[in-house]
Specification:
Blueprint (H helix, E strand, L loop, with lengths): L4 E11 L2 E10 L1 E3 L3 E4 L2 E10 L2 E3 L1 E3 L3 E7 L11 E4 L7 H9 L10 H12 L6 H21 L5 H18 L7 H11 L4 H9 L6 H20 L8 H13 L4
Helix pairs in contact: 1-3, 2-3, 3-4, 4-5, 4-7, 5-7, 6-8, 7-8
């Protein structure tokens, strides 16, 4: 992510929760939702005003009035430079609080780097399970935001989300890790074929158009995530039978 720097002209208002500063953007693009470093302290950028209007961002060389969170605002001095912090510099609690507000998609940290960061932390075995689970939920939230930014979810995006959901269920169990039945049900609804139809197409898949081959490969990836959570489905659940039917077809798909 690009680095953004803000130089403080003045602190107009401040209290223990944050304040308002007049700043000049030295480089990069300042956006609502960013976090800035002031020494060891972290300041959240919550709103930007330029020419009397609230704007989503401000670029290099522009002057703006910014609303910041954090008690450190009261200690800022004229000329001090604040530097944006990339996603791996954000505290877990800060990210959770930020995502809970449903920020616009143009705000930082952007969903894709945040999803990558959270996915890595989710799988970090040096972290306590509770912390890993929280990172997993952030990875899911960022994944859904990616899907929203890219339009209606297709099989490829559904597979990306299912990968995280499947991991959480297998690592932390149903309940804390998610609902295996809901995951299987949602993935089955996305598949526009029956197992028999897919098996028939798989026989001569090399002769199919490229887009159809790709479609079958994406179906195959969805089956993989369902199979991984199949042991958590209740005995006699019709979903289990549906997953079993697809698992028998999967090996034949391209």
């Amino acid at each position: 992510m690009p680095i953004t720097e803000l130089q403080v002209y003045s602190v107009e208002r401040a209290d223990v929760t944050g304040g308002v500063c007049l700043v000049r953007c030295l480089g990069g693009a300042a956006r609502a939702g960013q976090v800035y470093a002031a020494g060891e302290a972290r300041l959240g950028l919550r709103r930007i005003e330029a020419a009397g209007l609230t704007v989503p961002s401000v670029g290099g060389g522009r002057v703006a009035r910014v609303h910041l969170t954090g008690p450190m605002v009261a200690l800022l001095t004229r000329g001090q430079v604040l530097t944006s912090v990339p996603p791996d510099g954000h505290a877990l609690a800060e990210l959770e609080a930020w995502l809970a507000t449903g920020p616009p998609l143009l705000e930082e940290p952007h969903p894709r780097p945040l999803r990558a960061l959270a996915g890595a932390r989710m799988q970090d075995e040096d972290l306590p399970d509770g912390v890993r689970l929280r990172w997993g939920r952030i990875a899911l939230a960022a994944g859904y935001r990616c899907a929203e930014a890219e339009g209606a979810p297709d099989l490829a995006r559904a597979s990306e989300l299912a990968a995280v959901r499947s991991y959480l269920i297998r690592r932390f169990g149903p309940g804390p890790g998610g609902d295996p039945a809901a995951l299987c049900r949602e993935l089955l609804e996305l598949i526009d074929l029956t197992p028999r139809e897919a098996a028939a197409q798989a026989v001569g898949w090399r002769d199919l158009p490229p887009d159809r081959i790709l479609h079958l490969r994406r179906v195959k990836s969805l089956i993989a995530w369902m199979v991984l959570v199949r042991p958590f489905l209740a005995a006699g659940d019709p979903l289990a039978e549906a997953v079993d039917a697809w698992s028998q077809v999967r090996a034949a798909l391209p």
